[in-house]
Amino acid sequence: LQRLDLLTMEEASWAQEASSLPEQVRAVVDILAGKGSYASESLQTFIETTNSQLYLHITVYEPMVQKHLESLQSYYGNSLETGPLERLTNLLLVEGLTDIQQKEHDILQIEATKGLRNVSKSIPLEKLFLPLSKVSIPPRISVTIGVAGIGKSTLVKLFVYTWAKGEINRDIIFVLPLTFRELNTYEKLSAERLICLAFPHITEPNCISAGAARTLLILDGLDEFKTPLDFSNTVVCTDPKKEIQVDNLITNIIRGNLLQEASVWVTSRPTAASQIPGGLVDRMTEIRGFGAVEMQDFLDQIFFDNRDLSGQVLHHIRANRSLHVMCTVPGFCWIFGSSIGYYLKNCTDQSQEATAIPRTLSEIYSYYFKMALSSDWPEKPREALKIEQAVNNSKKIVGSLGRLAFYGLLKKKYVFYEQDMKVYGIDLSLLQSTLCSRLLLKEEVQSFTAYYFSHLTIQEFLAALYYYMAAKRAIFDLFTESGMSWPKLGFLNHFKSAVQRSLQAEDRHLDIFVRFLSGLLSPQVNKLLSGWLLVKDEHNSFRNQAISFLQGCLNTNYVISLRTVNTMHCLYEIQHMEIAKTVEEAMKNESLAGMLTPVNCSALAYLLQVSDICMEETNLSNCLTYNVCKSLLSQLLFCHNLKLDNNQFKDNVMELLGSVLSVKDCQIQKLR
């Protein structure tokens, strides 16, 4: 173009400074646009007579890119949530998954770590796919982790929309956002067919598969994928046109056998992310939860027309250490905040407020369920149902959705499709009801319709409600979906079966389900849901025996784990806290010496997480033996300030403590 006198040397140099060929083309076109028809005609002649990559970029790629940008701007501009999104613009830069993230349920992770990661490095969103230094290269495989409800999909939407507007990562030509919900609907695909099906306006997928245009492939929600990824038995495929099983397609893309030049960004809950071998991940980031100001802003947004109520809700959340920790996650903050707000609005007896404020998970979700039936729903209010209709509907919906939730939970299935609804006999017209639409969300895309519970814990609560109601009349093991099992009669036998299954489950996916199941036996929850879903005072027939069984699970010869702590949480849900209160009182009086039996050790491990006494300093002076110290190690590493004076420790205990300090999970900052 310089030789044709269409560009000066300065203009050509300026255009060449652009980071990629398409960017250079745009710069040149912008310059020529101001030079009249002669420049345009000369450029057209040059393009038509030159068989160059430039010809392809201007005639094929550039219109395709433009259409893609318009499509993403339209879709993601409309679906992006409003609210405090600043925390999503800066991610924590982490060195792989910790032991607790690989093994434990999301809620147990939050409770044990107090919602904090021992991480000092962060990375801005706009630098997520750039090299960390001048001598390093951009990451090919990036993984972003976060617990359920922390905002992984919102982060993806924010990134895609910001990129489509040209504000970040302009060197990336194609950003291809896909969800595992969508991938679940396919059995076999090739890499190129996947691109064409998901993005019909991309008519030349070979420019992506061949690496001609820098591409970022986003795979959102690995935890929702129907098939576990098996990297050890991947059938190698390097042909982008060959159709293979979808799980094999994903593993080949991540391994670099397909779309070798593309960057890949996977988002996932931590446990599911452990499927990807650490050696394949170039960069791992984590979404941080709310800080104090963000939590307040979020609650103000929920109660935008009543700031006084927002302040009261925040006060109650801050007064309960466990709830406050959970509310650092936006999904929990919404459920907890709106439920407590609903309680406060409907609490007429001021003296009742101090005692009946919802504190346990089961109480909060019971209020949430009642709120879903009422006209007090915070968003998009609809006409409230008549009380008789609401009661009948709620029983019918829990019977239908609860069964779906329970057997979905057993299969680790969190997304459902129309064929699933047919299998479980769910009337699709039922899903249009007010209550259903507040518990089960619907995602309708051109190629599929997906249903998913508004939060993982909503599925777990409905599953527990279904199990509780079914266990009273079931004669076979409810965990066997076919019904073919040894007879199992009586609610207590089914309760024991659920607790034992939870204790045996390798990935702890039943832990919160069992907490809810225990909570349904508490007097407060029975009072809340009697007449709706539960029979008044029926819990009295089972409660004491259930408590005895749970306490029996604690007597485990000084083997303390997060499962033991979860059993203590079950006792808290059922409102039996005598053991914990005794140990907490001894901690206050510094009189723990000689009383740390296996059961009391379990209570102590639980208190290390939830008690206000341990917030500033955990004082375990003059009370620990070698066995007790060894049993508590997995919990001690989450104490920030640990006081272990006068315990007459010998070398074997010092070696144990030394090993704890080198663990990746360790949050101990001060040790005496």
Amount of beta strand = 5-15%
Helical residues, percent: 40-55%
Helix count from the secondary structure assignment: 32
DSSP strand tally:
15
Major sheet: order of its strands? 2-1-9-3-8-6-4
How big is the Rg? 28 Å
Sheet with most strands: 7 strands, mixed
Anisotropy-based shape: globular
Low-confidence stretches: none
At the fold tier of CATH, the topology name of the domain at 86-287 is Rossmann fold
Mean pLDDT: 87
Terminal-residue CA separation: 74 Å
SS-based class: alpha/beta
CATH C-level of the domain at 86-287:
Alpha Beta
CATH architecture of the domain at 86-287: 3-Layer(aba) Sandwich
Protein name: NLRC3 protein
Organism: Brachypteracias leptosomus
InterPro entries: DEATH-like_dom_sf, NACHT-assoc, NACHT_NTPase, NLR, NLRP_HD2, NOD1/2_WH, P-loop_NTPase
GO molecular function, one term: ATP binding
Describe the protein in words.
One of its GO terms (cellular component) is cytoplasm. This is NLRC3 protein. It is found in: Cytoplasm. It comes from Brachypteracias leptosomus (short-legged ground-roller). This protein is α/β, with parallel strands linked by helices and 672 residues long. Among the domains are: 1-50, no CATH class; 86-287, Rossmann fold, CATH 3.40.50; 292-359, no CATH class; 603-671, no CATH class. Helices cover 50% and strands 9% of the residues. The strands form four sheets. The chain has a seven-stranded mixed sheet with strand order 2-1-9-3-8-6-4. It has a three-stranded antiparallel sheet with strand order 10-12-11. Helix 13 (292-302) crosses helix 14 (307-319) and helix 23 packs antiparallel against helix 24. The radius of gyration is 28 Å and the shape is globular. The protein starts with 8 loop residues before the first helix and ends with a strand.
